Amino acid sequence: MEQAPDIDSVRNMLMCILTTMDNNERRQAEIAIVKALRSSSTATLLVQLLRDTATTSAGARQLSAILLRKKLFSLWRSLSIEHQQELKNILLTQLGAEPVKIVRFAIAHVVSILAKAEARDEHGWPELQQSIFSAMQSPDAEMRELSMVLSYSIAEVFGDQPTFINGVGQAVVGGLSDSALNVRLAAIKAVGVILPFLHGQKSVKATMHASIIPIVIQTIESNIADPNALTLVLRTMELAEQLCEELHTNTHSEYLMQLFQMLLTVMGAVGASHLRVREHASEVLGMVVQNKPKFIQKANLIDQLVRGCLTVMSEEESISFPFDYDEEEQDMDDDDVELLRVRTPCMFASRLLNLCCSHLSTKTVTASAMSMITAVLENPAAAPLLRKAAIIGLACLSEGNPGYLRRRVTMILNAVQLLLQDASHIPREAAAFALMYFSDHLQPEILTHHHTLLPLLIEMLKDQHDNVRRRVAETLDTLCENVAENLEPYIVQLMPRIMEAIPISTTATQEALVSAISSVAQTQCPAFQQFGESVLALLREPMSLDISHPSLLRVKATECVGIVSLAMGRERYQPFFHFFMEKVVENLNTTRAELREESFGFLANMCEMLKEQFVPFLNDAVTAAIESINRDVGHVENKHLLAQAASIQLGIHDDSDDNDSDGEDEDEDPNEMHVRVRTADVEEKSSAAYCIGTLAEVLKVENFGLVRLQMCWQTLVNVSGHFHPNVRSNALEALTKIAIAAQGTVPFAKSPAGAIQENLNADVREIINGLLYEVLYPCMAGETEKEVVAAACDALQKLIQYFGAQTFSSDIADLCAVIGNLLRNEAPCQANDEDVNSDDDGEDGAAGDNIGEDHDHVLMDAVCDTIDTLAEAFGASFEPYFRELGPHLLKYLAEGRPAEDFTMAAGVMANCFMSMGPSSEPYFNDAITIAQRIIYETDESAAKANCCFIIRALMEHCSHCISNTGNQALLQQILTALWNVAGSNDEIPQACDNAISATCTVVMKLAPMVPMQAVVPTLLQHLPMKVDKDENKNGVACLCYLIQFQSDFVGANLASVLTASAKVMIDRSVTDDLKQQLGSSLRQLGAAHRGPVETAIGALHPTFQKNLRFMLQ
Which parts of the sequence belong to the Importin N-terminal domain (predicted)? Predict the structure, then answer.
């Protein structure tokens, strides 16, 4: 039997581990101590060494404590109750006697573990609480600090015990005012940990609040300007945030008001020692705005908030975060990181203003902000910084309350034009920056002004100030992406101006300019073709930058080359292929995430361009993508103070079969685990998943390979549970593309609309079922992130659009139940919405109505698009499912809902009616009533457009609901509502087009009841459509109907009919097949009434005469 070591042997082992330079000797000592620890007597020796401050070094004592902690539970179970009590007394005594701080913390670590062990037994440990309380009274600051640390370490064990709260709890409050900084910092943490345990002890909690809140406010206000107290102020601010979060608006409104006023003062304190303090104050205010909007509104604090934000925004020149910070490339602690990442006053104040717009009463916030903004913009003598703040404030409103500003686009553009010509570069830069937000959030109204915007921006690329050019480039990047084919006439002027600006600009501005080129190329307008080779030649230099170059220019160039090559086509890009492919290979061989991310996008574009010719590069591309997906890059750190006492790095692993610890010892460390993962690493994974999906979708299983397809499928299924929502979302999209790729090029017959028939082979069916029932359905039903649920909805839509109704092997009742849950706002991903609406006061509105006060931009549009896709796939047989979902949609059309809700719900209802056809009849009367109400009620043009579409869909398929009853009054109401939109100069062109198209349908379906002479001549003046090309089909159909079936009307209005026909014929947006269809009808008219037709043509404009005579030949 192996003899247990004595105390000298154990001491020598520990000293060897700590001091020897010989790795083999250290390893042997580690193995020996592991074997020795199998005996409880060795653990007892560790206790003796721990007490031996005379002959055992501090390092050996610390290591003794660490090893004792690792074997504590196995030792504890082997001791009698008397010996357990003795061990507790020894540890508490040594905790007070140990002279070295790091060793004291190591002993405290053991004590905290032992406290958890005691909590499992019937016996308590009152001596521990008494020791903590005694240490708080110690004149030694280190002992007081240790008492605070122990307090929050064992709070989870004793926090719900009144004796603990009454003794230790009140004492840690006193630590908040301690003379020693470390004690105060530890006390702040202790208070923060203890407070949640007071949930059921209202009187105790009220007493603590009364003590804590004045100290918190006084600490922040008295130290805000002291640079030496920065950490104290920041940590106290964290406690203030916790307090704001847990205080109830009804019972603690006075406390909340005190904290709110202090935070608002701090945010505006120009004399603060560091901007991070002010930013933190703005973040806490933002939390209050998000979680307690009713408090802000009831206390009439909105005006103060808005004014405070705009004042801070006008302090200095900057507009946004001045630089990107890469944690991986910096060698500093977390506090330094946080200080370096501080935002400028304009940025953190504008973010708060944006939150106000999104979470508070939009009407009140907008009224308050607009009164201040308008006063500045209308004052020619306003200072440049004030003008800057005003236009940035408008940008915030455009994101938070777009419906209000979309109706005022002309006013906004006038303000932008004025500021873009300002003598100071500050308002010019701000105006260009704001225009980017307007272009993004005020659609579609602002896009109709492209004839004003684009020439203005092209001219501004010549601005002498680099920051202005950068903001203009960023705005062009956003705008070009959205105006699409409308960009064509401007490319000839735009591209040379961008390319001229690149050499004279800073690197940051060059990055923005290259991104703008990417957006122009992405439109694939024919006018861009002439610039393809010049752009690629220009990009050779940034693509040759050293991989380690800190800028993002090579990153942006990689993205741009891929997009430009796709626009140019295979043949024209061929001379550049090898050079750029080599550079992308270099990108993939680096560890720089940004370069790898864009390289995967480049490879996806190459595959789309080369098709099967990409196969030689396929294996390397997929291998690199899977490697990126599977690689985890992150920094994990335990920030608990007691864990820092165990910072000695040991290679001690017990490889024996001794399982006496039952796995408990290693899991009992105090943990505050913080995982930091850079955004760039996440985006790299997302891009890699996208790349795999695109390669599979383009090459299909025949070229991609079945084995490779299965390997990628498994990789993506695994990563669909990744912690970051972006990665999960992209994995879902890629899985859908793989499911489509599995079908390959084998033709399959789609089932008729609404029929679930099996036309797919067994392998494809298995993949689709796995995706539907094991991935997408569970995600939509149980995922907690809205972005991921929206991605699941998008993936489902893509699957249905490709496979039709046969996507499903059974009925869709379960899917519709999940969708209904989402419409009711009752899914797990919407849980936070309910919390916000309830505002912790139980004032969350009617039971069962949880849809919230604001439009859900993130998720609900995707849910409704899924309903549209299902309706299109199932046709008339979708009606039973619509019967179930329709009532939930009606809630979004209720009076007082946001205009965006009207747009969304009206749009999905219109699409469903169009897809269901005559099966929509049961909803006719209610839907027509709702459409008319919204047309008159809302200012939102897009909502009116969709209501007109509802009317058109119902007239298309259910007009008999009027004709069979002879309801002339209802018909007149419908025509009046439609002309309220079509005849207005204030609506967007899409709304007018929808109203005109709906009127065309009414005329075709109900001509005997329509007052033709009152309606049709004016209708003809609006043909063809202004912007909605799809509606031209209905307009041409109406013209043909009139010519063929309404000869009396045509005879009386020949000039109007021929003029409308001529305008259609010369309009480039009308397709050739529609022109041929109309031409055939015109020839029939000419043959039947040659004389009158010739006479009428002779009276028209010469251009129309020539066109019509050609068509009549």
Answer: 29-97
Give the residue from 501, 590, 589, 602 showing the smallest Cα distance to 556.
602
More confident residue, 841 or 771: 771
H or E element: which one contains 793? helix 786-803
Q: Is residue 512 part of a domain?
A: no
Domain encompassing residue 95: 1-124
**How many C-beta neighbours within 10 Å does residue 766 have?**
12
As beta bridge partners, residue 635 has 676
Mean model confidence pLDDT for the chain: 85
pLDDT tens digits for 404-445? 888 788 899 999 999 998 999 999 999 999 999 898 888 878
Q: Is the dihedral of CA 48, 53, 58, 62 positive or negative?
A: positive
Share above pLDDT 90 across residues of the chain, in percent, rounded to a whole number? 50
Q: For residue 91, is it within any domain? A: yes
> Taking the complete model, does pTM exceed 0.85, yes or no?
no
User: Cα angle vertex 959, ends 1079, 946, to 5°?
Assistant: 80
Q: Please tell me the total number of residues recorded for the chain in this structure.
A: 1113
Q: Is the residue at 89 inside a domain? A: yes
Q: Which amino acid is at 913?
A: F
Based on the structure, what is the number of domains in the chain?
1
Look at residue 25 in the predicted model and tell me its pLDDT.
Answer: 84
**Taking the C-alpha atoms of 885, 891, 893 and 897 in order, what is their torsion angle to the nearest 10 degrees?**
-150
How far apart, in whole angstroms, are the C-alpha atoms of residue 854 and residue 449?
28
Helix axes 570-588 and 532-543, enclosed angle (nearest 10)? 10
The torsion angles phi and psi of 249, rounded to 5 degrees, stand at -65, -30
Q: Which residues of 587-626 are buried (b: 16+ CB within 10 A; e: fewer)?
A: bbeeebbbbbbbbbbbbbbbbbbbeeebeebbeebbebbb
Cα 1060 from Cα 1108, distance rounded (Å): 11
287-323 tens-digit pLDDT: 999 889 989 989 999 999 999 999 999 998 888 643 3
First to last CA, the chain: 116
Asked whether the beta carbons of 604 and 694 are under 8 A apart, the reply is: yes
80-89: pLDDT as tens digits: 778 878 888 8
Measured N-to-C along each axis, helices 879-890 and 813-823 cross at an angle, to the nearest 10 degrees, of 10
* Closest C-alpha to 275, from 304, 316, 239, 241: 316
- Cβ-contact 777, 815 below 8 angstroms: yes
Asked whether the beta carbons of 901 and 853 are under 8 A apart, the reply is no
Tokens 């090029």 belong to residue: 745
Q: What is the pLDDT of residue 832?
A: 59
Long-range contacts of 540-544 (CB under 8 A, 24+ apart): 540/579, 542/510, 542/514, 543/579, 543/580, 543/583, 544/583
Q: Token pair for residue 839?
A: 């505002």
514-573 per-position pLDDT tens digit: 999 999 999 999 999 999 999 999 999 999 999 887 789 999 999 999 999 999 999 999
CA distances from 418 to 346, 432, 942 (A): 21, 11, 28
- The model's confidence at residue 674, banded by pLDDT at 50, 70 and 90, is very low
Is 33 within the bounds of a domain?
yes
**Sequence-separated (6 or more) residues with CB below 8 Å from residue 572:** 532, 533
Picking from 319, 323, 334, 236, the residue whose alpha carbon sits closest to that of residue 284 is 236
Q: How far apart are CA 254 and CA 262, in angstroms?
A: 13
Q: How far is CA 563 from the centre of its chain?
A: 24
Q: What is the pLDDT of residue 844?
A: 38
**Token digits of residue 330:** 């910096």
**Residue recorded with tokens 């104050």:** 281
Look at residue 493 in the predicted model and tell me its pLDDT: 94
* pLDDT value at 61 more than 90: no
Show Cβ contacts of residue 673 under 8 Å, excluding neighbours closer than 6 positions: 636, 637, 638
Could you count the other beta carbons within 10 Å of the beta carbon of residue 934?
Answer: 24
